[in-house]
Amino acid sequence: MASPGKKSFALRIDPAVWEAIENLAAAELRSVNGQIEFLLREALARRGISVSAASQRQRPSEPAEDANT
Predict the structure, then answer these.
(1) Is residue 27, in this structure, part of any structural domain at all?
(2) Distance in angstroms (rounded) separating the CA atoms of residues 28 and 8
(3) Which residues form the domain of 53?
(4) Residues annotated as region Disordered (predicted)?
């Protein structure tokens, strides 16, 4: 069951990649799910994308204030 506030989805992944992530997760005392999220956040940060900025872009823009009022 997904944690509250978290999005769940199916992921098809190469078995060798899965095994590598499992091993890394065990070495770093994380769950595989936690390790995948950690790696995704790390990859986004390397590209200069902050998670909070990415979530703000998904929000609908606020209506522009009318200059005549």
Answers:
(1) yes
(2) 23
(3) 15-58
(4) 50-69
